[in-house]
Amino acid sequence: MNEPSLRRLEFDRENKLYELFISTNDLSIIESNRQNQSNDISWLLAFGRYLKTTRINSHSISSNILLYEFIKHILNENLQINHMGRIFLEHLGGQRIFSCAHCDTPLTNRNELVSTRFTGATGRAFLFSRIVNTKQSPVQERLMLTGRHFVRDISCKKCDMKLGWIYEFATEESQRYKEGRVILERALINESVGF
Fold first, then answer.
1. What pLDDT score was predicted for residue 160?
2. What are 84's strand-pairing partners?
3. Segments forming the whole domain that contains residue 29
């Protein structure tokens, strides 16, 4: 009979400590309220050592998937990776183009515009169905004038200027039309003639 071997890894995320318990058949994340923990990546190094020394049973596919998801989640949310090389940009074309006001990177066109009747932190804002050349933050819950929403901040892929947000989920049924659509703040974008 195999006894499950447990390993615990800790990482600090937004002043909360999470503990990860891994066994041959179980993977769970448990919140802990410990204070004064160092904010480093020693947990990642320990996790790498654990993966090298521990063999997960081949019949335990769900554990492998959960381990992969854990690594992907942590790398996406907690590590800032400085990518070297060329930035590849898309261009949607169109007669009227919206671009980043800071670096003039093309973001979308007039055909993707859904509404101009929104308000952002800097004032007037536009709702678009599709944009390109942006990066997204992790999901955040926000209470807005129209209710509670789960959103991701949108920033320019080239200059990192925050431009607006994308709606991931709306709790109010009447606001569901916003899901998957993007708010760009008018003060942070330029409109110009396309081709």
1. 92
2. none
3. 7-78
